[in-house]
Design a protein that fits this description.
The protein has about 240 residues and is an alpha/beta fold. The chain has nine helices and eleven strands. The strands form three sheets. A six-stranded parallel β-sheet has the order 5-4-1-9-10-11, with helices on both faces. α5 packs parallel to α9 and α7 runs parallel beside α8. The relative contact order is 0.20. The protein binds nicotinamide-adenine-dinucleotide (NAD) and zinc ion. The site of zinc ion (ZN) has 8 residues, from loops.
Length: about 240
């Protein structure tokens, strides 16, 4: 049975990576991009998370992030996030690589965490490049301006078509080169870099477990695909 096999793999691992996407936070009430409920005021999420959208209309993009930050502030980590936090305490070597910007892994207790697409509660000045914690909600001005230089602030998030933050992918690869197991949770596999990270770990010999109620571009490649919501299946395969 797949659940037993997944348990066995997790039991025999010492060095584990967990790669998450929007699906891990779906049960916390945070909409995914490509799932149902992913629309906002007739705009597609993918069309707002771009540098072009921001230069065209920074106020509109900030309004969208303001709405999303409100959703994140009201959300709580779900049983899936909590198990991933327990895993960090159990394994000698462990890393969460998340595409999510919602902060829920950190709030669940994970410290060995790379938020490869950035953080919805961090801003970056487009002039002086200062990166700062930014959780003003509601915004006092839209668009918000840099307290140091008055420049336009933007969310410190990797938008579609943008490069990853310097060094981030190397940190991931460095960890993934020697993992026993990679768990791939709640990602559709439409964004190429996270897919390449998972493929790299598997090519280096890692066992792979996917958790996703639907199929993804990685389903064919993994050892075990558990097709159920993360918050239901993680407590079943984790009995430490
Ligand atoms: P996606 O929206 O493309 O895909 C979500 C995936 O989650 C789907 O495959 C879906 O079947 C699966 N899913 C839905 N409910 C699930 C559940 N309960 N348990 C497990 N899986 C479930 O998301 P993506 O692949 O992460 O790519 C979207 C991009 O958008 C990312 O780069 C991310 O930065 C961003 N994003 C982040 C958040 C967030 O921070 N929570 C939310 C939406 C989008
Ligand atoms: Zn500035």
């Amino acid at each position: 049975m797949k659940i037993e096999k997944a348990k066995e793999i997790l039991k025999n691992s010492k060095n584990v990576a967990v790669l998450t996407g929007a699906g891990i936070s779906a049960e916390s009430g945070i909409p995914t991009f490509r799932g149902e409920g992913g629309y906002w005021r007739n705009y597609r999420s993918e069309d707002l998370a771009t540098p072009e959208a921001f230069s065209r209309d920074p106020q509109l993009v900030w309004s969208w992030y303001e709405m999303r930050r409100g959703v994140c502030l009201n959300a709580q980590p779900n049983p899936g996030h909590k198990i991933i936090a327990e895993m960090e305490n159990y394994y000698p070597e462990f890393l969460v690589i998340t595409q999510n910007v919602d902060g829920l892994h950190a709030r669940a207790g994970n410290k060995k965490l790379l938020q490869i697409h950035g953080d919805i509660f961090t801003s970056r000045c487009t002039d002086c490049m200062t990166i700062e914690h930014f959780d003003e909600h509601p915004l006092s001005t839209n668009p918000p301006l840099c307290p140091s230089c008055g420049g336009l602030l933007r969310p410190h998030i990797v938008w579609f078509g943008e490069a990853y933050f310097p060094g981030m992918i190397d940190k991931c690869l460095n960890f993934l080169k020697s993992v026993d197991t990679i768990c791939i949770i709640g990602t559709s596999g439409q964004v190429s870099v996270p897919v390449q990270l998972a493929e790299y770990a598997i090519s280096q010999g890692a066992k792979s477990i996917e958790i996703n109620p639907s199929t993804s571009t990685l389903t064919e490649l993994v050892d075990i695909a558990l097709q159920a919501p993360a918050g239901e299946i993680l407590p079943k395969i984790w009995d430490k």
